[in-house]
Task: inverse folding
């Protein structure tokens, strides 16, 4: 009918747990940006984009927001998920921890790393890229910034506490222990991305960490467990050349900072 507005070329759908939106109406072919917003970011978060008739790159599948080319009528879906359950009944978060008590919005999000938590030491989310500075600081749970790398070694014989002042995970989630991190296999997706698999559970790990007394960036990463013995804690480490292993961090206790992947409290 004369005067009718052109139909929108993008049909948006989503699984339960969140909504998706676009930057503007798509009444003509072109580039559009889509955003996935979980209803409850503590328990449900974005997992993956799918687009009818279009093969997305891994980066596009897991980016949030994502920018795609719209050649004509398409259906776009965002999947929201509360975690993956392994063979032992443990629910794993599909995204890393971002700033304290929040998840990244994408399984490929890898912007923050943490040193081992202990009572009496302020929890800090350190940026996983760039030099730590006033323009690229770490963040405490209260939002205050930190620009001096913590070079003090872990000394206590205690597991990573679960109290909110030290536990970086969102409410209802905790840092996994040594047993949780056992028996994973690793495969390479790209030069900087590894896929960790245990049974039906698949996690994505980006190789980026900080290490030693100056907080230098390294081309490896892993997960810290919540388990510790006197002066040492247990980690899972993956570098650019090797598979996965569990080891005690003997060389530099608590000086390295890894991404944190949480498990859900039973």
Result:
């Amino acid at each position: 009918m004369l005067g009718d507005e052109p139909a929108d070329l993008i049909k948006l759908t989503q699984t339960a747990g969140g909504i998706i939106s676009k930057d503007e109406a798509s009444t003509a072919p072109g580039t559009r940006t889509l955003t996935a917003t979980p209803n409850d970011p503590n328990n449900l978060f974005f997992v993956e984009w799918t687009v009818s008739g279009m093969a997305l790159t891994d980066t596009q599948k897991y980016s949030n927001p994502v920018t795609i080319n719209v050649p004509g009528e398409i259906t776009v879906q965002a999947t929201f998920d509360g975690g993956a359950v392994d063979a032992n009944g443990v629910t794993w978060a599909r995204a890393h921890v971002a700033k304290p008590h929040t998840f990244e919005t994408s399984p490929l999000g890898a912007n923050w790393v943490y040193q081992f938590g202990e009572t009496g030491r302020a929890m800090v989310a350190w940026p996983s890229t760039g030099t730590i500075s006033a323009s690229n600081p770490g963040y405490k749970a209260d939002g205050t910034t930190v620009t001096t790398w913590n070079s003090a070694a872990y000394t206590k014989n205690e597991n990573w506490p679960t109290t909110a002042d030290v536990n970086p995970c969102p409410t209802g989630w905790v840092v996994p222990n040594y047993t949780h991190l056992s028996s994973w296999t690793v495969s390479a997706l790209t030069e900087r991305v590894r896929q960790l698999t245990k049974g039906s559970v698949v996690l994505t790990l980006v190789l980026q960490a900080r290490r030693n007394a100056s907080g230098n960036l390294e081309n490896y990463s892993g997960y810290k467990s919540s388990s510790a013995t006197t002066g040492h804690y247990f980690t899972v480490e993956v570098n650019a050349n090797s598979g996965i292993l569990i080891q005690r961090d003997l060389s530099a206790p608590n000086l390295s900072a890894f991404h944190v992947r949480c498990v859900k409290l039973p």
